[in-house]
């Protein structure tokens, strides 16, 4: 088994280094690779391969990845190359080793043996996580800013899993220095192993250990300590088979994003606490339902507002089919509830099917979206995972060609803006993978309340969207 592990590790390393070098050469943003480190987990408690089964919630995301980048502005004294390579990088590497000792499955890879009915995570002794260190001469303020900018620039700040690998690794990291300005950390995570909350818990744990690192094997506080007990996932076994059938062919290859068009732009917009409250009051006044019937969470209000702006951006064709999707967290919806620090996926896609664009094109489009999304969220507590799975599978079968899809990544409750590695809190965070389709991202609005939302569109569409977004908050 050790020889197999060494062979897989070597294959992953060579494939990843090749794809990194090719991408850096062809990217819109010119990056200089300084080094590629392979960081081992700090763990002396295992000498045999660790095998972790995938669960129902993992199987839905077998061929997906989660990509995010977090930006940090440095002070004048800490942004020099000398300080970065002599202090920051060594601390990041040492703390990464320590945190991987707590999150051991993240150092492994996903495999599917011919005799096994479903894939699993395998961690061999001496497995590592790849940490790419690079530099960019671009203007940090522009790249990390929230204004309209080329989507391809942000993609250069994360790595891609090798498309030819049928036993993909779980985690890949990239740190990019903008000399005398700041740096960013790019995360590429295998979605079959971790959902957004797990990614954020890992990241916050890494930051905690890095900032407070004083000795080896540092302990994590209770709210960051991961729970690896997958037997807690109480879902009927037949649903796993249903998810595998839905995935199609027996492969674990994760498709790469491909080239991003020169006309695709990214923007990050903000809804302040005042904006959210204004949308809440608008929904109450425009809906014919009683206030008690409406579900007016920040998530519902922000998603409904973004969605109606997007549908109106595309204009006419009111008969075109549309569907809204979001990933619901089931940690508190299963019996028994799942630990908040559960290391794995505990989210499932929820779809609002059967709607047409004209529902959202009128003056009442926003309140219609609020009612549809609100009803869906309220329904999560009334339906079991078996029923929700059936509804999702049936809805997927009925999706018509040309359907406009709305999806959303992230959450306004993750608290990522509190992640301080010792050199200050983030100035911005971006979900890179939303550039693959018309998806939104959502996170908290730094530490001042409200919500931050992002999307990628063609330049002419982006201009229309921004106009609709801004006008709707003023009127």
TrEMBL record:
Annotated keywords: Acyltransferase, Transferase
GO molecular function, one term: acyltransferase activity, transferring groups other than amino-acyl groups
Pfam families: Transferase
InterPro entries: CAT-like_dom_sf (IPR023213), Plant_metabolite_acyltrans (IPR051504)
Protein name: (rape) hypothetical protein
Species name: Brassica napus
């Amino acid at each position: 088994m050790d020889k197999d592990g060494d062979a897989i590790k070597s294959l992953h390393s060579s494939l990843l280094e090749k794809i990194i070098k090719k991408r850096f050469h062809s990217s819109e943003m010119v990056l200089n690779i300084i080094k590629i480190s392979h960081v081992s987990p700090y763990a002396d408690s295992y000498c045999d391969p660790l095998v972790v089964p995938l669960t129902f919630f993992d199987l839905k995301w077998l061929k997906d990845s989660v990509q995010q980048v977090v930006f940090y502005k440095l002070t004048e004294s800490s942004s020099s190359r000398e300080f970065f390579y002599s202090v920051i990088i060594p601390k990041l590497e040492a703390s990464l080793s320590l945190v991987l000792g707590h999150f051991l499955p993240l150092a492994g890879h996903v495999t599917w043996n011919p005799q096994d009915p479903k894939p699993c995570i395998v961690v061999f002794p001496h497995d590592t996580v790849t940490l790419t260190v690079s530099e960019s001469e671009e203007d940090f303020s522009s790249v990390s800013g929230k204004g309209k900018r080329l989507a391809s620039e942000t993609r250069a700040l994360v790595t891609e899993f090798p498309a030819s690998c049928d036993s993909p690794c779980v985690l890949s990291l990239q740190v990019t220095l903008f000399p005398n300005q700041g740096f960013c950390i790019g995360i590429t995570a295998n979605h079959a192993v971790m959902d957004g909350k797990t990614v954020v818990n890992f990241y916050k744990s890494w930051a905690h250990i890095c900032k407070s690192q004083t000795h080896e094997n540092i302990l994590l506080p209770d709210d960051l300590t991961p729970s690896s007990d997958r037997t807690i996932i109480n879902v009927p076994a037949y649903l796993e088979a249903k998810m595998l059938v839905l995935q199609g062919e027996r492969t674990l290859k994760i498709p790469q994003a491909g080239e991003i068009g020169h006309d695709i732009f990214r923007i990050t917009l903000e809804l302040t606490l005042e904006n959210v409250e204004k949308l809440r009051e608008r929904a109450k006044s425009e809906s014919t339902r009683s206030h008690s019937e409406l579900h007016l969470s920040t998530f519902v209000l922000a998603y409904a507002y973004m969605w109606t702006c997007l549908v109106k951006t595309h204009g006419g064709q009111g008969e075109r089919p549309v569907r809204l999707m979001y990933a619901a967290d089931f940690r508190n919806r299963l019996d028994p509830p799942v630990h908040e620090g559960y290391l794995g996926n505990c989210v499932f896609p929820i779809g609002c099917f059967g709607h047409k664009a004209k529902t959202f094109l009128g003056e009442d489009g926003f309140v219609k979206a609020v009612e549809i999304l609100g009803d869906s969220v309220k329904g999560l507590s009334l339906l079991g995972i078996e029923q929700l799975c059936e509804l999702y599978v049936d809805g997927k079968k009925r999706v018509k060609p040309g359907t406009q899809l709305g999806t959303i990544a992230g959450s306004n409750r993750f608290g990522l803006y509190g992640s301080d590695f010792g050199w200050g809190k983030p100035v911005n965070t971006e979900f890179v993978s939303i550039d693959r389709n018309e998806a939104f991202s959502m996170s908290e609005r730094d530490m001042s309340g409200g919500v931050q939302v992002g999307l990628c569109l063609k330049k002419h569409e982006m201009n229309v969207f921004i106009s609709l977004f801004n006008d709707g908050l003023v009127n």
